[in-house]
Design brief:
alpha/beta, 2 domains, 14 helices, 6 strands, about 10% strand
Amino acid sequence: MPLCHVTMSLCRSTWAICGSGPTAYQPSLKSEDALPKSASVKRGHEARPMDLLKWLEGESSQLHTYVKTVKYAVTPLLKNPIHRQYTDHSVEHSYRVIEHLNQLTDDLMQDHERCLSANETYILLAAAYLHDIGMQDERHAVELTASLYGGALDKSYNGMREIEFYYLEQIRERHHEYTRKMIEEYLEERNEYVKIGLPRIDVLDELVGLVAEAHRQVDIYQSTFCPVYHAKAFIRPRLLAALLRLADGLDIDYSRVDMERLKLMIVPPDSQLHWYLCYYVSGVEIAGQDIRIHYRLPKKRPHYRSWLEPLIERKIRSELEYLHSAFESNGLIFTMDSSEPSYHMKLEPLPSQVEHAADDASLRAAYDADESDASPDE
């Protein structure tokens, strides 16, 4: 049966997760979905969280092998990014996203009623490795750029740089869509598809594409994200998409940027600002369902503190608010706060142009927030 028919039939059922309300999702747990005894013991949060990939190996060696195959296939694909001016989207980014997933699912995996099944874990990990492959797909952006400029291309140096910038921005802005297209092309063996390592397991790999695309912008409260009944158990695409989106959004610390490489690049101030914001985040701590952002700032630059909430925290808080229903219906309520920054002599301050960009971005964020607060509820 086609996936769309499966999801539509489920949305007509009585499963509460298809709504946006807080009713908990409580599947009947099959024996093959139960956690091993060693994993069901409640651990203090000072211990390392569960490693989802290792857990999957104990539950299904075949699915574990499939995830490893995807990892090996995607590593060279992401090795040389075409977007040099953006923060890291290589497989190293995927590793950090998966580490966040290990932490975000720690409480969930100790809950026998709601823990991820082996199939769900496979989908989530495969999507984590694949979610940014669309950043490498130039084909569709070429069509968009050509339609914008038509035959009247400015072939001067500045004109070509403008076209290149627009072209790369189109890829970044729509890379989640391109990721889904690349996965579908591979599954259907059409066009000049790229080998991405998926085993072509009908429903499961279709859901990998759905979840990978939903790491940004996609409305996860559509009917396509309702539970799917497969192999005698329900799969929860909405929960998986919410977990991936949050984990991806939390990869914001200094390990995502190489500031020495930035010195050699010609990057617009707005893009440089994203690098510096990561540079000033010393880490993201996840303990159970509590998220805390830790900052480090250059000494004698205390005014930088005023930019952190509008330029870093506000986006994450907005994402958490949007994802709240998907998490709450599965027994998760994530909260976020931040620590006071530590100040260090050796941290580089913002160049003057980037400082102006930070001021402008902060003002825009404040204006957008005021507009949002003033808008009537729909």
